[in-house]
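Quick note —
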Amino acid sequence: MGRIVHFEIPATDPEKSMSFYTNVFGWEFKKFGNEQYWFANTGDEKAPGINGAIMKRKDPLQPVTNNIGVENIDEAIKKVTTAGGKIVVPKTEIPGAGWFCYFTDPDNNIFGIWQPTKK
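Predicted structure written out below.
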């Protein structure tokens, strides 16, 4: 069963957005490598909820995206397309971390699929 494990908030001005979420909700951010991508720690790991990230907006229409964790991304991609979804960003590797892709469901909602690298 796939669960939502991560969210991404696109921002035209990531620093301004991080300041907003820090001041309003107390979130903490950590930059990921050389990317314009900052992980968001949204609270106590023992409490309900998920962490996410703020990223530099890549497209004016880019929405907030929830990412669903899967064991096998290739199998999940097949299931998405068989069930009427469409892959909009192909499977992409983040070296040392895992693989992701983005898809739309039959109602054009966009989600991500995330398969972490097995340790």
